[in-house]
Design goal:
This protein is of the alpha+beta class. Helix content is 48%, strand content 11%. The chain has helices at residues 29-39, 87-106, 125-147, 159-179, 190-218, 246-262, 265-292; strands at residues 4-10, 16-23, 48-51, 73-80, 84-86, 155-157.
Length: 308
């Protein structure tokens, strides 16, 4: 059996970093990364990006050497992705923070609203309902991270945890400060507005969970295979008929419901920023689906049916 020689160069300086002799033809990029780590322990596999061209796309871990457009002496270009951290750790950290921070304001711990309000309780029902909804949302996210989500990538750059936590924790503190403030004013249309908002929030939370379960069942444990998601018998998944990322549609809907419920400007801004970011993600996933699957349903939009 013919073996390969693999030369790994620095993607920026073209300096030779490693030469691997007698590499099996069916070796995967993941296995080559492990061999590279033996000579350069500071660059563990999750930190490595190997490419056929210095400015090209990263090769996938499951790519097989003999199926790549290279000769028996293959040249790969290395790029350091920087310190990495697991997706699970990032998600648990960024979601646990808002849950804890919001409750500090809800229970009015000292030094937030002034001494005379320490550990007092709001007389407005909507304030207590908002706390229940906010807490439920983030407890749901934490449980989904542990038990539901299957990540196609094991890690992300360490710097992301600081960026993500600043966003989630900062907005949680900002909205919690106003919603739980002793001078907070309930919604203009009272109980009717709150009931409508609660219905929107609950429906969208159920829809979001349903989509996450459908996506989980689409990918077997340990697999990175991608398939076209289709509606199941669960009516909440029927939104797949119209959009590529209904989990984002339902997520935005939940925060619109929370905005209507609290009638609070920081919540509205959080919803808007979230919608913009999720639209970017949805458009990216929609393009990937169209590129990867020639039979992808043409009626679908990225996030908002028929519009966006």
């Amino acid at each position: 059996m013919k073996h390969y020689e693999v030369e790994i160069l620095d993607g920026k300086t073209r300096e030779k970093l490693c030469f691997l002799d007698k590499v099996e033809p069916h070796a995967t990029i993941a296995e080559i990364k492990n061999l590279f780590t033996k000579s350069h322990p500071q660059w563990y596999p999750a930190r490595q990006s190997l490419r056929l061209d210095p400015k090209g796309k990263s090769l996938k871990d499951e790519d097989v050497l003999q199926k790549l457009p290279v000769g028996t002496t293959a040249t790969l270009y290395f790029r350091d992705l920087g310190a990495q951290i697991s997706w699970v750790t990032v998600f648990l950290t960024e979601y646990a923070g808002p849950l804890f921070i919001y409750l500090l304001f809800y229970f009015r711990v000292p030094f937030i609203y002034g001494h005379k309000y320490d550990f007092t309780s709001s007389r407005h029902t909507v304030v207590h309902l908002a706390c229940i909804c906010h807490s439920f949302h983030y407890v749901k996210r934490l449980l989904e991270t542990i038990f539901v989500h299957r990540f196609s990538h094991g890690t992300m750059p360490l710097r992301n945890i600081f960026k993500n936590c600043t966003y989630y924790w900062g907005f949680a503190a900002w909205m919690a400060y106003y919603i739980n403030h002793p001078l907070y004013t309930p919604p203009t249309h009272g109980a009717q507005q709150v009931k409508l908002a609660l219905a929107i929030f609950v429906i969208c939370q159920l829809g979001n969970f349903s989509i996450h379960m459908a996506l989980r069942n689409l990918r077997p444990a340990g697999s990175k295979a991608r398939k076209i998601p289709f509606p199941t018998k669960n009516p909440f998944t029927w939104l797949f008929l119209l959009v590529s990322c209904p989990n984002y549609t339902y997520e935005v809907g939940s925060w619109i419901g929370f905005t209507i419920m609290t009638q609070c400007l920081p919540v509205a801004l959080f919803s808007l920023v979230g919608f913009i970011q999720m639209t970017i993600w949805a458009k990216g996933k929609h393009r990937s689906y169209l590129k990867e699957f020639h039979n992808y349903p043409p009626l679908r939009s990225p996030i908002v049916p028929f519009l966006l």
